[in-house]
Amino acid sequence: MKKGLLLFLFIVFFSGLSVGQSWTKELKKRSHIGGGIAFGSDIVSLGINVLWTYKVQEELRITPNFTYFFPNKTEFTVSDQTRYLWELNVDANYLIPFEHDNVNIYVIGGLNLSRLITKRESKNQDITPDSRESKLYYGINIGVGGEYSFNKKIRGLLEAKYVFSSNDQLVIKAGVAVSVKELFK
Questions:
Q1: What is the pTM of this model?
Q2: Domain total of the chain
Q3: Where residue 78 sits, what CATH number does that domain have?
Q4: What is the pLDDT of residues 24-48, one digit of tens each?
Q5: What digits encode the pLDDT tens for the residues 92-136?
Q6: What is the mean pLDDT of the chain?
């Protein structure tokens, strides 16, 4: 089941890359790629984010993105705990009409798949053994974002969204996106 879902998401994410030449031109014209930094409130750690945005209509965009959070280590009396988290999101961004040429504000709704790995390293194996736990979470994203267009090629991004799942957390992201059309001119 898990492998099937990941395969499906992989196919959806890359389906636009193997289509005909005319659609490829349209894909470049409507796409942005980018990345940045993220902060997760549950893992309490910074992360890195990569994204692809495709403009479906003037006010609607689809944004698949992946975030890897840096490990968070906590020391306890009898053991040390290290948590690792990554998340894969497929979000829809609806642009709110706004009267400013360089600024866009949008609402976010989407699907989330994340994996949390917790490792516990015992300071005394006689009292507590080492352990490793891995959990996969499914959820939905709801949030708000904004972007500032510096020029035709580059725009700055700022987002805040809440992930509703068994591993709830607020995720705040900041980064840049580059126009694929302008990038490959």
A1: 0.81
A2: 1
A3: 2.40.160.20
A4: 666 666 789 999 999 999 989 999 9
A5: 999 998 878 889 999 999 999 999 999 988 877 777 788 899 999
A6: 87
Structure tokens at 45: 């750690």
Domain that holds residue 7: 2-183
Residue in this structure with the two tokens 């289509």, named with its chain if needed: 19
Q: For residue 182, count other CB atoms closer than 10 A to its CB.
A: 14
The C-alpha angle with vertex 137 and arms to 132 and 138, in degrees rounded to 5, equals 170
- Write down the pLDDT at residue 34: 95
- Hey, what are 68's tokens? 């890897």
3-class secondary structure per residue, the chain: CHHHHHHHHHHHHHHHHHCCHHHHHHHHHHEEEEEEEEEECCCCEEEEEEEEEEEEECCEEEEEEEEEEEEEEEECCCEEEEEEEEEEEEEEEEEECCCCCCEEEEEEEEEEEEEEEEEEEECCCCCCCCEEEEEEEEEEEEEEEEEEECCCCEEEEEEEEEEECCCCEEEEEEEEEEEHHHHCC
